[in-house]
């Protein structure tokens, strides 16, 4: 599939960017933006061509997430989570479940969300308290609480990571929004940044599902975690590289607007030129390392995982540093929320704490070089 970064950048600037501040200020889920994304066919990016999708790969995934996040970090994150679960469904779900989900995405614009983290689990998703119990009638009953489920209450499908009926193992089930016993606490979401993604708790109270809903064989939870790990980590890296692109655009627009409105050429100040160069360099660094990691994964290089982890770390740090220098250029107008810089600054800070955290990734990255 041909590169699509510039195509989606143009689309998102037209259909998403004009409303991004509104989504953020109201903590409002971007329904219309997701409808536009469906209409363009981007929700079907990872669905195979023979099934009616675009047949894209991981590099296309990074391009799309990055391009959307340049206009809205929240929209980029919602889209990224959808693709991550879709990738796992491609690899592990039964043919019937795959086909049903594909058709729902293509026809209805159905979204998929990931429900893995839990209140007591922190950054550890390998020991879930949520459990699926096999009943006498062959159904499974799931009980538990998931925390910070992006798109909570708005996605049609939720991939729930839970303890298996078999002791010591884990399973993944795809649960529909209208399932009896499934609810969300939307009022619990009040994030500093990424405010429009509605990352709220999910409650599973005696939710019953069939074998049909299981993604993979019994006990395949860890396998599923491994299958989605690269698109997940690389997707997050792409979102934060996208924020870097958004900051370059926002700072450029601010400098030009000040010149037009007041005749004040900010470029006469050496510090402004220095800061703008920093912002651009951070963007270039973030985009380059993310695309390099994606190509390394697709080429099956021996060190692709190190590059993926490094890309996530670097892109996140670039976004935070770029936001700092962008705010210095934007000054009081940005601090007073008169442009996008303040919003992107807040969005950038989510990256250091989102699973997998930067501290955890840096620890794992170092261990890869010293494995015995």
Automatic annotation (TrEMBL):
Residues 235-350 form the Acyl-CoA dehydrogenase/oxidase C-terminal domain. Belongs to the acyl-CoA dehydrogenase family. This is Acyl-CoA dehydrogenase. CDD domains: ACAD. One of its GO terms (molecular function) is flavin adenine dinucleotide binding. It comes from Facklamia hominis CCUG 36813. Keywords: FAD, Flavoprotein, Oxidoreductase. Residues 6-105 form the Acyl-CoA dehydrogenase/oxidase N-terminal domain. Residues 113-207 form the Acyl-CoA oxidase/dehydrogenase middle domain. Its cofactor is FAD.
